[in-house]
Structures are given as structure tokens and as C-alpha cells.
Amino acid sequence: MFKYFARLHEKYQRKILPIVIYSHDNKEKEPDNYKLEFSFLKVLEFNFMRLQLNNEPWRNYIRSNNPVAAALISKMNYSKEEKISVKIEFTRMLANMQLDIARSTILTAFFENYVKLTTEEDQYNKMLIEELTPQEVSSVIEITTSYHEKGREEGIREGEKEGRKEVAKNLILLGIEIDKIMEATKLSREEIKKLISE
Questions:
Q1: pLDDT per position in the chain (198 positions), as tens?
Q2: What number of other Cβ atoms are within 10 A of residue 192's Cβ?
Q3: N or C: which end of the chain has fewer CB within 10 A?
Q4: What is the maximum alpha-carbon separation in the chain?
Q5: Range list of β-strands (E), 118-184
Q6: What number of CA atoms fall less than 13 Å from residue 90's CA on the CB side?
Q7: Whether 192 contacts 181, CB under 8 Å
């Protein structure tokens, strides 16, 4: 942290308020300073503000209009029993912020990476979503549809690439030259060499 602070301060010559956001799962209190000292001399003491997400009560942030706060509640302090409530409140926050689809999709992907619901929890979550206001439900449907379409498109692209790799493997077994395999499959030389070495 100190190195980043020093570089920014050197470059911009402005006052900088250093804030560290700890997002790991360790509950132990993290430091809010960095010291460089010897037994005979204190060379440096760098202090910064500390935000340790897993020690923050998530309910303190649900009235925020800040998209980053919405995504970060996924890493805050909540119990297993509150997981669905966290998801519902995140959904409500996102719907009320009325962000464009691209930003909403990024925030949803980040959030869902950390808050994974079981099938039963997901069903219950969908039932609770229906209790939101009509405007919130409309926003949720739009965000969810876009998020799932993006996932489906990525899945299709990944599937197509896997299919090209299978074709390349068959061509390798037939003894076809690498250049011709590259032309037929649109795979790179490195990808084909990797398949040969497998």
C-alpha cells in the first residue's frame, strides 16, 4: 500500500487519503499502518484507513446509491441464514440505481461469484423477488436476462473452441500438417502444438 501511495504522491503532488479495503475471509483484524524501523531508529510510520469487509455489517450499506457498495456487500459480514436476504437487497439496490446493462452485468457477476445460492435457495429467492415493486421487478428481469444471455454466448464460444480442438486432435491423428490444421480450425500454432504434446 505504501508503495502505491508514494508513487501517486510523487506523480500528482497532491494530498491523498489512503484507504485499504480488505476483502479476504480472514476475520482477524488487519493492520491500519505500515512501519519501517530498526531497534535504534523509527524510519517510517505510514497510516491508512482500513475497511475490512468481513467485519462490516452488510445492512449498513443497503441504502447506499454506490454501485461498488452494492457489489461489496457480497464480501461483508452476514450469516448463512441471511444469504438470501443479502441477495434480495443487492437485487433491490441494483434495480433502484438504474445503471446501464453493462455495469449491472459486471456488478451481478462480481456479486454472484461470492454469494452462491443452492437450488432451493434460488427458488426461494425468485419467490421473494416477486414481492419487489413492479419497477424493481422489471429492472431485475432486464438485468437477469442480459446476464444469462452473456453467459450463454460465452458458453457457446467456449463450446465452439472445444469443438475446433476436437477436430484438430483428429487431424493430428491423421498426420495432417500443422499449417493445414491451423487453416481448418482457426487455432494458433501454439494451441495445436499443445494438443500434439498431450
A1: 899 999 999 999 999 999 999 988 888 899 999 999 999 999 999 999 999 999 999 999 989 999 989 989 999 999 888 988 898 888 888 888 888 877 888 888 888 888 888 888 888 877 777 777 677 666 666 666 555 566 666 766 777 788 778 878 877 877 778 887 887 788 898 988 888 888
A2: 20
A3: C
A4: 73
A5: none
A6: 29
A7: yes
- Nearest 5°: the CA angle 89, 94, 97 is 125
Instruction: Quote the pTM value.
Output: 0.58
The Cα 20–Cα 52 span in angstroms is 8
**What is the spatial distance between Cα 92 and Cα 69, in angstroms, rounded to a whole number?**
13
Contact 73, 61 (CB under 8 A): yes
| E strand segments, the chain | 19-22, 33-37, 42-47, 49-52
* Residue reference for cell 423477488: 129
Q: Are 167 and 185 in contact (CB under 8 A)?
A: yes
Instruction: Please give the C-alpha separations between residue 132 and each of 56, 71, 75, 92, 126, in angstroms, as whole numbers.
Output: 26, 19, 24, 8, 10
